[in-house]
Recover the amino acids of this structure.
């Protein structure tokens, strides 16, 4: 059996898509797939908090095929803001598949507290989205402010 890989990319807004962020993700994923057979490429333009992402649903269905061994994403939060551990440790393995992260977040990894900062950003993103609406300027400003604070080392 030849090992197949499913690629999944996501951006939160049509602006990000227009700026080429989604295309860039897919290029990195194709490179990371290397010589493996790409069974499917799936994308969404939606919040990582949304459970109505058709691209993700299709990607997960494709992962159920016996020929698929890997779901490849650029960053864990591209898959989902919360619950990725459940997908990576329970759901995907039950299908004989595993989650592979193609690109790290170099800015966060330099701090040494990357996991903690990612968790904090996920929480801020979630609550600001609920408070202001996930696509509002206030929600984006709050997330940028937290990221800026982390980059400056003021955390």
């Amino acid at each position: 059996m030849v090992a197949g890989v499913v690629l999944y990319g996501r951006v939160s807004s049509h602006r990000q898509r227009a700026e080429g962020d989604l295309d860039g993700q897919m290029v990195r994923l194709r490179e990371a797939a290397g010589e493996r057979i790409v069974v499917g490429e799936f994308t969404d333009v939606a919040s990582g908090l949304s459970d109505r992402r058709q691209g993700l649903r299709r990607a997960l269905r494709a992962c159920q095929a016996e020929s698929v061994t890997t779901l490849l994403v650029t960053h864990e939060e591209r898959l989902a803001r919360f619950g990725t551990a459940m997908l990576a440790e329970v759901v995907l393995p039950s299908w004989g598949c595993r989650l592979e992260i193609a690109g790290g977040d170099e800015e966060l990894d330099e701090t040494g507290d990357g996991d903690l900062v990612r968790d904090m950003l996920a929480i801020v993103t979630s609550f600001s989205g609920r408070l202001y609406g996930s696509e509002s300027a206030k929600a984006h400003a709050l997330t940028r402010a937290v990221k800026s604070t982390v980059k400056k080392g003021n955390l």
About this structure: The longest helix spans residues 114-132. Residues 6 and 123 are 28 Å apart (CA to CA).
